[in-house]
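User
New here, help please:
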Amino acid sequence: MRQPLHRSIVFTLAFFAMGILNAQLPTPFWTENFTAGIPAGWTSEDESNQNVLWTWCANPLLGDSDPGCSQPWDDALNGQVPFKATTAITGFAVLDSDDPGQLSISHVSQLTTAPINCTGKSQVYITFQTHIGVYSFDAETNAIVRVSTDGTNWTEYTVFPGLTTTERWSENPETPILNISATAANQSNVWIQWEWTGNYEYMWSLDDIELYDQDPTPQNDVAISAFFYPVSSYSTPVSQIASDTFQFEVNLSNKGLNPQTNLVVTAYVKEDGGSTLHTQSISIPSLDPGVSDSNFIFPVRYAPELNTGLYTVGYTLTSDSIDQRPVDNEREDNFVVNNNYFAKEDGPEQGYRPSAGGEWAVANYYRMNGGNFEVYKAAQAEFAFSTNSDEIPIGDVEAALYLFKINNDVAEDFSDFDISSILSSSTEWLGVASYEAPDTIDSYELQRVDISDLNTGLTGVVLEPGGRYLLAMGYEGASSKVFHAFNDDIFYYFPSTFIFNTDWNVNGFGGDVNALLRMYIGLLSTTDEQALPQNTLNIFPNPVHRTLQLGIEFVEPTDATITIADINGRVITFEDRYGLTKETLQYQLPQLASGTYLARIATAKGTLTKKFVVQQ
């Protein structure tokens, strides 16, 4: 298990729901939407006497500017939005667990209705729209609905099944449907209570409560219950993305009462700005009610050849019937193509370490392109961490960095990986670096170290085409108390981040918990040991303002790799071209600062590197 750090920065992608139900649903016999505040006769109490109480918020957009509201956690790190319940804009109930800070005793905060008359109702179902964020106490067992017919004896109902401190955030809004008939049916006095046990959590919002005398589950409600992120790394160097073949895959659920027919799931890849680069669909003849997380794999793989930039991969779902809750019919996530580094995440969000304690290591798995004419090196590693100051001052942290090559005979799923030692027999140790934190470092401040070849001591380790690598960070002694930076945004359904404690766990802390441990690559050499003729590559204009033009000339059709790099060999852009003879290639470089750069062409017969100057 992992051990989380004290309150820091958390972000989990949420897919926003409007919670609007189709008119085919039955009519509720009792409702409350908090338009006029918390109703008379309701009570808000804290059983632990910590005075953490449910309050009324007039508008989710007010946030902390209104004493009755809570901040929506809509910052870039947390990625939430203000409460999206149907009538939230006219007021809702909220419990702000974050505002009081760390408590000596956990709050047990209860919002209780006045008695509700359910006489003559042989069935009673309750549904409401809600949004919660937890940190220390999972929502599954600590954020519950309780029902009573005497105000003393209570029956508990689960609101957020499976929502732990790993997941943290519910959907916004989530719309649970609870069958409380066993307690409430045909009762003249029914009290309903929302109880939250927590300590320095986020908030729990509540609105649009409805009671029904029949099941309000939609007749038609299919969902993409999980989608599989086909990119092997959130961020991939442009020189390597073409080898990252995408496999598309989804899980579907039928949450409604009716069988669904002729379902169509479409997978797509879009570039920033919306242009669709790839799309394909699969058809499913039927999906029965109650089917949950049924897996479907798309038959066509996609091998992207992309320029640097932000991209989106996503899925949409349709069927013959009109979906009464369409919020979960579309899911998507982003990935990045960059100049020169691999990353499993888009920034630090949370710190973890093994709960068992002791010396430990974290590693990310990266794979190189199998087919181009350039040779690359692992040049630098980037990482982040934090500490509890009473365990070890952050400026005292020391760590060792390792670069391992995974042996060619190790299975793709790592099922035969030797987990017994950090220096696994399934790997070859190639690179090393040592790290000592500077005195002025802040929590989660990005740090970078050069990777040295274990045998030569020189900076940079040659990366083989098609090679598989583990970039690892090890913490020993007092530094084993470090919380390495992780990110919970993306779920990889294959090994991504590994954890070593007493042995290697190839699944780490889970598929959605990925280490901030990036690998920067660059050209192995910017000199030409086997130089091509000078007229092979000509640069114009030089100096360059925004557009670089390269004149290429070969006597016969030639396959080549074209690389634009900075003066230190860090790749800016890359392109494999086939059958080149005599032509002009153009590269738009408006993002480059003024300075000296390299243009390089590599073939099976040699290389040629020339300098050019950018003037902005």
Observations:
- The first strand starts at residue 2 and ends at 4.
- The CA atoms of residues 7 and 122 lie 46 Å apart.
- The helical segments are 139-142, 181-184.
- The radius of gyration is 28 Å.
